[in-house]
Amino acid sequence: MSEYRLTDIYIYPIKSLGGIRLDQCLIEQKGLQYDRQWMLIDQSGTFVSQRKHHLLSLLQVKINGSELTVAHKLDPDLNITFDKDCETGELIQVTVWDDQCNGMEVSKTVNDWFSSLLGMHVRLVKMLNEEERYVDPRYAYEKEVVRFSDGYPCLIIGMAALDQLNQKLDQPILMDRFRPNFVFSGGMPHEEDTFSAFEIGGVAFFAVKPCARCVLITVDQQTGKKGSEPLKTLASYRSRNNKIIFGQNLIHNGSGTITTNTPIVVHSYKTPV
After folding, report:
1. Sequence-ordered list of residues with C-beta below 8 angstroms from that of 8, at least 6 positions apart, any chain
2. Number of domains observed in the structure of the chain
3. Could you tell me which SUPFAM superfamilies the record lists for this protein (predicted)?
4. Mean of the per-residue pLDDT values of the chain
């Protein structure tokens, strides 16, 4: 059996903005620390996404001690910094797909900065630790909770899957199109599809649902430009039940610090490798 080894860890502190690569990260009950803890919402309280607002791909988030900084990738002077604990005290009901939960408004000043940049009224909200948003019960084990991610605490993709895709594309793309939390080496392309129960650094993970992809993966994260790829090519060989599949959604049990270059120990498979 091939050895699987964790090569990259990513978090996306503000949903749909640029991610941060880490060598190690604490995993908590709701997922990796700070992952999708903040989110932009429109006037109706619905989350704002790169799917419609490609400019979000050019906004890079950094965490410096107690502060978050958001800066434009092509114009670093266009930036804003605020404290991780910053909040106005106003709880707002927000919508993430079919779920409704509460978000704490961060700052009127931060709202204005994002609104000016996007040309529409938006607010930045934070999920408080005590807020509970549950994973889809069809795939949950024990009422697992999640922050503002689309539906599950973590996403894993094998590097072999991207390598295979890039062999089929005229212009290779980066893994950041797919916004994984974990990337690993080893195995055949899409071998993560076969995972059932596995372990990273003593934390138990369960692969519960393939990740269906949308037009977001057609947005170049370095330029903010949208095209037809890689969705067009993936449709030719990764289509299942009219959905394009790339990566596996995960739930987990336990907490701890996860570090890159750690072996991924698979305890059971859904199907033979």
Report:
1. 21, 175, 180, 182, 183, 260
2. 1
3. MOSC N-terminal domain-like (SSF141673), PK beta-barrel domain-like (SSF50800)
4. 97
